[in-house]
Amino acid sequence: METFKISELAREFDITTRSIRFYEDVGLLQPQRQGSTRIYHRRDKIRLKLILRGKRLGFSLAEIRELFDLYDTNQSSSQLNKMLIIIDTKQAALQRQLEDINVVMTELQIAKDRCNQALKSQSPGE
């Protein structure tokens, strides 16, 4: 079974070992222990990747924990429905952000084009 040291995960994901320990402290990661050494398995690595991606997409640690908890338990209809509501809500928020980003990207491109046009219309040496 493939295992990882905390320093390997920190290097791979370009985060500090302190961040990884924090995710462990709040219950998002549960590495195996051998003395004081933490041994991370593939499951921990995948969870870390999901935590970081979730954070980039605007999920709170509480939301990430709730999704992990729902995934880890025997999934009843009510749990699955709750998970679907969380996912739908987040998808709607991300869709709004994506639309806002597209508008801003268009506006920035227009501003950039105007600047380039103005530079071309200026005489050399101005």
UniProtKB/TrEMBL annotation:
The keyword Transcription regulation applies. GO terms for molecular function: DNA binding. It comes from the Bacteria. Keywords: DNA-binding, Transcription, Transcription regulation. Residues 3-70 form the HTH merR-type domain. The keyword Transcription regulation applies. SMART domains: HTH_MERR. This is MerR family DNA-binding transcriptional regulator. It comes from Photobacterium rosenbergii.
